[in-house]
Amino acid sequence: MGKAQKYVLLGDATYPLQDWILKPYQEDDNLTQQQLQFNYRLKRAHSVIENAFLRLKARWQILLKCDDCSLELLPTLVLACCILHNVCEAHDNPFNEEWLEGTEPSELPKPCQPAPASMEDGRAEQVRELMCQYFETCGEG
């Protein structure tokens, strides 16, 4: 019996489907209502993630200038900002909406072309199908 997968990354259509990368179903007229709901929930999760990164970069604008940092310091800097940001968010430290003015939502670098089908993991479709079924049973959200 295999080890239970606890976490997955969310990808878009350009990423290969793996048992640790969830991506939406290919949009076409043949999608079931359940698959459309899955795609909708994945899109909502992406927007939450984008908003979190936007707030992180707005609060700690040094992250906008990381090209000024040495590569050795960069992981520590990002980790420190994430920890401090989470502490601020957990303790309802006021977030100044004006901070967002200097921060543009930006797409994270990602592949331009969809991954070849040969990179996809056949077992991953079972994981996506189970998540799709779970989303259907856990109600609206």
UniProtKB/TrEMBL annotation:
Domain of life, per lineage: Eukaryota
The UniProt record lists the keyword Nuclease: yes
Subcellular location: Nucleus
Domain called DDE Tnp4: residue spans: 5-86
Protein source organism: Nothocercus julius
Region of interest: Disordered: 99-118
Matching InterPro entries: HARBI1-like (IPR045249), HARBI1_dom (IPR027806)
UniProt gene name: Alp1
Primary residence: nucleus
Entry's Gene Ontology cellular component terms: nucleus
Cofactor(s) it depends on: a divalent metal cation
Transmembrane helix keyword on record: no
Protein name: ALP1 protein
UniProt GO MF annotations: hydrolase activity; metal ion binding; nuclease activity
Family listed: Belongs to the HARBI1 family.
Keywords, alphabetical: Hydrolase, Metal-binding, Nuclease, Nucleus
